[in-house]
Specification:
Layout: E1 3-4, H1 5-15, E2 20-23, H2 36-39, E3 42-45, H3 49-63, E4 67-71, H4 75-89, E5 94-100, H5 117-122, E6 127-131, H6 134-150, E7 156-161, H7 162-166, E8 168-169, H8 188-199, E9 203-207, H9 214-224, E10 227-230, H10 257-262, E11 266-270, H11 276-279, E12 290-294, H12 297-300, E13 308-311, H13 314-324, H14 335-352, H15 356-366, E14 372-375, H16 379-387, E15 396-397, H17 408-418, E16 424-429, H18 430-433, H19 440-445, E17 451-455, H20 461-469, H21 484-490, E18 494-496, H22 501-512, E19 518-522
Parallel strand pairs: 2-3, 2-4, 4-5, 5-7, 6-7, 9-10, 9-11, 11-12, 12-13, 14-15, 14-16, 16-17, 17-19, 18-19
Antiparallel strand pairs: 1-8
Helix pairs in contact: 1-6, 3-4, 3-17, 8-13, 9-13, 15-16, 15-22
Length: 528
C-alpha cells in the first residue's frame, strides 16, 4: 500500500529487524514519526540528539544489531555528530536518518539551514548520502544493512528532504536474499601462519574487538602454548589467571609492554588496529615477524608493516588455524613471569592513580554475573580497564577512539533498553556526567534499574596530571560541582552517597533491584 515515505521508512526498518529507534521529533522530521507505532517500532525519546546517538550506540554494542536514530535538519544532525564520530571510530553499526531542506542553493534564511549538512555529516561517518526519491531511500537503507553485516561496522547517514518524507511512496522492497560470504579455503597464507606458529618457541597473540568468540580463541592459544594481550575492546575474550596463566591482560598501554612483545619470536594480531589508543606509543615493540588479520584492508597496510597480511574475519581465521593443527607440548613463556609482570603493572597503575584500584576491586566484587558496563572518559575507568579482568567478551564498552565525554550514561540507557532483565551499569566522572545529565530523565521515564557510578574528584584529574607532567601550572581543571544527589532526585532518580566501600557495595546491589536509575556518588575519600 502507498504511504508517505516517512512512514514507509519505519515499516522497512521493522522488516529489516529493527525494534527500537532513538531520537527527538521536530517539525522537519515529523513525517518519520507517522509510521512508528503502526510499524511496531519502540521509540525512545532522548533529551538531546547527542544522547539519542549514544543510546543507539549503546544499544548496538549490546545487541550486535544496528542502532537507529531519527533527527531533524541542521542542529539535530549537528548535535548527533559526536556520537556518529564515536561509533565510526569504535566500529559500531549506527544508522542516522535525518530530514533535510528541499533546496538550499537559492533559498536562504530557512529554519535549520546549513550550507551543506550532508557533507558535514560525512566527516564523522562511513558515508553520508541524500535520498531524493523513495527508491533511493530504500536502496540506501538496504545498502547500510548489507554493509553492517559484511564490512567493518561504521556509522552511516541518510538524509531525506521534508517534501519527500511527506510524499506518498509505494511499498518498500522485500529484503534481498542474504549475501553469502565467499568460501575461503585454507589458503597458503593460513598454512604459512600454521607453520610459523608450530616452529615458534614464544608465540604471542594480540586480540582486539574484531574477535567475538572467546571460547575458540582460548582453545587455540591453549593448544599453541602462546602468550597473549588483548586490547581494551578485546577484554573477556581470554580467561584471566589462573586459568589464562599466559595472558598479560589489557595492558598494551603499559610502556614496558613493548619489552615483553620484543621477547616474542612470532606476533599474531587479530581484529585490532593497534592504534594509538591501544598502545599509547608509536611502535608495537616487536622484533619478530608480525602477522595481521583483519577485515579492513586499511588496517593491514598501516605503519606497523606486517610481514604477513590476511584480510579475513578474525573468528574464521582462528577456527581455520586451529583446525589445521597447532598443538604443542611446551612453551617458552613462563606463567610465573607473566604473573610477576602483571603484578608489577598493577603496582604502577596504583601509583599513577592512587586510591582507585581498591574501589574498583570492591565494585567488581559486588556486581551480578553478566553485568554489562558502559564507562566514560574518567580516571576511574582508565585504571579499572587495565586491571579488571572480564569473564566474557563484549561486556565493557568505552568511548575508546573518538574519546568523548558524556558517553556512559546515555549509552548505558541504550544497553539497558536492549537487555531487559539483565544487569547494566554506567561508570562516569563528575565532569563528563554533566555533558549528558539530562538523559537521567529518559532513564527515569523508562523505569530502568540502572546504577550510575559517579566518580567525583571535583576536577579534571587526568588533565591536571597531564599538565603537571608537562610542567604546566594546572589551569582551568577545577570546577564547582552541583549537589549531584539532589540533582538526581530532581529528575526523579534515586541517589546514594556511600562513605565506605561496604556502603558502596550495598548501594550498587540495591540499584540493580530498583524501579528506576540510581546515581551513586563516590569520592576518592571512600578508599581512605
Amino acid at each position: 500500500m502507498e504511504r508517505p515515505l516517512g512512514a514507509q521508512i519505519s515499516h522497512m526498518l521493522k522488516d529489516r529487524g529493527v525494534t527500537h529507534v532513538f531520537g527527538i521529533p521536530g517539525v522537519h522530521n515529523q513525517e518519520m514519526y507517522r509510521g512508528i507505532e503502526e510499524a511496531g517500532l519502540v521509540h525512545i525519546l532522548a533529551r538531546h540528539e547527542q544522547g539519542a546517538g549514544f543510546m543507539a550506540d549503546g544499544y548496538a554494542r549490546a545487541t550486535g544489531r544496528p542502532g537507529v536514530a531519527y533527527v531533524i535538519t541542521g542542529p539535530g544532525l549537528c548535535n548527533i555528530m559526536t556520537p556518529m564520530g564515536q561509533a565510526y571510530s569504535d566500529s559500531v553499526p549506527l544508522l542516522v536518518i535525518s530530514s533535510c531542506l528541499d533546496e538550499t542553493a537559492t533559498s536562504h534564511g530557512q529554519l535549520h539551514q546549513m550550507k551543506d549538512q550532508r557533507a558535514a555529516a560525512e566527516t564523522v561517518c562511513d558515508w553520508s548520502e541524500e535520498a531524493r526519491t523513495a527508491k533511493a531511500a530504500y536502496a540506501l537503507i538496504d545498502r547500510a544493512f548489507v554493509e553492517f553485516r559484511h564490512q567493518r561496522k561504521r556509522t552511516k547517514h541518510i538524509q531525506v528532504s521534508i517534501a519527500q518524507l511527506g510524499a506518498n511512496a509505494g511499498p518498500h522492497p522485500t529484503p534481498a536474499q542474504e549475501i553469502r560470504r565467499p568460501v575461503i579455503q585454507r589458503s597458503g597464507d593460513i598454512v604459512a601462519v600454521q607453520e610459523l606458529l608450530i616452529s615458534a618457541q614464544k608465540p604471542l597473540f594480540i586480540l582486539g574487538g574484531g574477535v567475538l568468540d572467546g571460547d575458540f580463541a582460548g582453545v587455540l592459544l591453549g593448544a599453541a602454548k602462546a602468550a597473549s594481550f588483548t586490547t581494551y575492546s578485546g577484554r573477556g575474550l581470554l580467561p584471566p589467571p589462573p586459568f589464562g596463566d599466559l595472558n598479560f591482560g589489557a595492558t598494551l598501554g603499559r610502556p614496558s609492554s613493548a619489552e615483553v612483545i620484543s621477547q616474542a619470536d612470532l606476533v599474531i594480531a587479530i581484529g585490532t588496529e593497534l592504534a594509538e589508543v591501544d598502545l599509547w606509543r608509536d611502535k608495537l615493540g616487536h622484533t619478530a615477524p608480525l602477522v595481521r588479520v583483519d577485515i579492513d584492508p586499511e588496517v593491514l597496510t598501516d605503519r606497523h608493516r606486517a610481514e604477513c597480511q590476511i584480510q579475513y574475519d578474525g573468528d574464521a581465521f582462528i577456527a581455520d588455524l586451529y583446525e589445521l593443527g597447532v598443538t604443542k607440548e611446551t612453551s617458552g613463556w613462563q606463567a610465573a613471569e607473566v604473573a610477576a609482570t602483571r603484578a608489577q603493572w598493577r603496582a604502577e597503575i596504583d601509583a599513577e592513580r592512587p586510591g582507585i584500584l581498591p574501589v574498583a576491586d570492591a565494585l567488581k566484587e559486588c556486581l551480578p554475573e553478566g553485568t554489562m558496563i558502559y564507562s566514560d572518559m574518567t580516571q576511574f575507568a582508565y585504571a579499572a580497564k587495565e586491571v579488571w579482568d572480564m569473564d566474557r567478551p563484549g561486556h565493557w564498552h568505552h568511548p575508546t577512539g573518538f574519546g568523548t565525554l558524556g558517553y556512559a550514561t546515555p549509552a548505558a540507557i541504550g544497553g539497558a533498553v536492549a537487555r531487559p532483565g539483565l544487569p547494566t551499569m554506567a561508570i562516569i566522572g563528575d565532569y563528563g556526567f554533566q555533558y549528558t545529565v539530562q538523559e537521567l530523565a529518559t532513564a527515569v521515564e523508562l523505569e530502568l534499574p540502572l546504577p550510575i557510578f559517579l566518580w567525583d574528584n571535583g576536577k579534571l584529574g587526568e588533565i591536571e596530571d597531564s599538565m603537571v607532567r608537562a610542567q604546566i601550572a594546572p589551569n582551568a581543571v577545577v570546577q564547582k560541582n552541583p549537589d549531584f544527589l539532589k540533582l538526581a532526585e530532581a529528575y526523579g532518580a534515586y541517589s546514594a552517597g556511600p562513605t565506605t566501600l561496604a556502603e558502596m557495595q550495598t548501594a550498587v546491589q540495591d540499584a540493580f533491584n530498583a524501579d528506576r536509575p540510581t546515581l551513586i556518588r563516590v569520592t576518592p575519600d571512600i578508599a581512605m
